[in-house]
Specification:
This protein has 366 residues and is α+β, with helices and mostly antiparallel strands. It has eight helices and 19 strands. Helix 2 packs across helix 7. The mean pLDDT is 97.
């Protein structure tokens, strides 16, 4: 298994470690519920150095991105980020990823999911020659050089502001800048994240990773900062209804089915766009929905979603017991007919049909 620059720190803190996307990663420290609540109410730090990073530069950067991304990359100004899908020719999602615009039309920093680094890079490389983009020169996989920390929670920016000389607490959502943080140069600080609790993600050269961790943890002591594992990262994103590749997103699922029409700009041409236009015209056969159990139970990925008569109409993609509401919540794909808010459902848990209903996202109501 691969390790991040923080692996020894996680072990010293007594983290429960496990394999994730080929990396040895911390799943939990004090417990998923305690860590989840810490991020919602205070501030926590995630090691997300397993994520992948690509650099795309040159005059043909934008045409390549416009061809492969579902969103309109031309609308992203310098210093802003955009969430989008990496598309295949069948209208399916190769991955969901972030685009940071360093310089419009010619310099982009891309962040992809850990489990898809090689697949995504190969997908970009496959189409790069059509646009005159040189793989290894214009398109470079820099994942091995970068470490990433996500500092998340309502007090996250206060902690980080104490380490940066210039103002950062007024940075708009989905923006970024390069800063000197606790004396560490060239830290990319982005107001992005995967928790819905606010905060920032920090990208740094691996040689400065441990120094960054120590500085953030020291500055956060006054706020009760805590390290957070991937277990709470998953429950936090699920409470917000955020998609996770491998669960809600797959190569044979379209952005329209995943309720990602808001990042799917059919006014432009991109890989698979014609299929999505046809799908939109004909209507969706299945759709991602959010549900809440009406009785005690914990839904899990793979469980059957049934209608009121007990007929299978879909399957759960993600489910958990909400650490905040203590209710069973989940996401899943079902026949479109059953996706209307308030629609009664049943989730089959150990051969028992547990009543549920379709609800509005996010689940988290702070």
């Amino acid at each position: 298994m691969q390790q991040t620059p923080f692996t020894e720190i996680h072990r010293a803190l007594g983290a429960k470690m496990a394999e994730f996307a080929g990396y040895e990663m911390p799943i939990e420290y004090a417990g998923i519920t305690a860590e989840h609540l810490c991020v919602c109410r205070n501030v926590g730090v995630f090691d997300v150095s397993h994520m992948g990073e690509f650099r795309l530069t040159g005059k043909q950067s934008l045409p390549l991105l416009q061809h492969l991304a579902s969103n309109d990359v031309s609308q992203v100004p310098a210093g802003k980020a955009q969430y989008t899908c990496l598309m295949n020719e069948h209208g399916g999602v190769v991955d969901d990823f972030l685009i940071y615009c360093v310089k419009p039309e010619q310099d982009y920093f891309l962040v992809v999911n850990a489990s898809n680094i090689d697949k995504d890079f190969a997908h970009f490389a496959r189409y790069a020659p059509q646009f005159g983009v040189s793989v290894g020169t214009d398109l470079v996989n820099i994942s091995e050089q970068i470490a990433q920390l996500a500092v998340q929670g309502p007090n996250a920016m206060k902690v980080l502001q104490s380490l940066v000389d210039e103002p950062i607490t007024d940075m708009p959502y989905y923006s970024f800048k390069e800063v000197r943080l606790a004396g560490i140069p060239n830290v990319l600080l982005a107001t992005t994240g995967y928790t819905g609790a606010g905060g920032a993600e920090l990208y740094v050269d691996k040689q400065n990773a441990v120094a960054l961790w120590n500085a953030v943890m020291q500055a956060g002591k006054a706020f009760g900062i805590a390290p957070i594992g991937l277990g709470a990262r998953d429950t936090l994103r699920l409470e917000m209804g955020y998609c996770l590749y491998g669960h809600e997103l797959l190569d044979d699922i379209t952005p329209l089915e995943a309720n990602l029409g808001w990042i799917t700009k059919l006014s432009k041409n991109f890989l698979g766009a014609d299929i999505l236009r046809q799908q939109k015209e004909k209507g969706l056969q299945r759709k991602l929905l959010a549900f809440q159990l009406l009785e005690r139970g914990v839904p899990r990925a793979g469980y059957e979603i049934c209608n009121g008569e007990g007929r299978k109409i879909g399957a759960v993609t993600s489910g958990t017991m909400s650490p905040l509401s203590k209710e069973g919540i989940g996401l899943g794909y079902a026949e479109t007919l059953y996706s209307t808010l308030g629609t009664p459902l049943c989730i089959k848990i150990r051969e028992k049909l547990v009543p549920a209903q379709v609800v509005k996202l996010p689940f988290r109501k702070l």
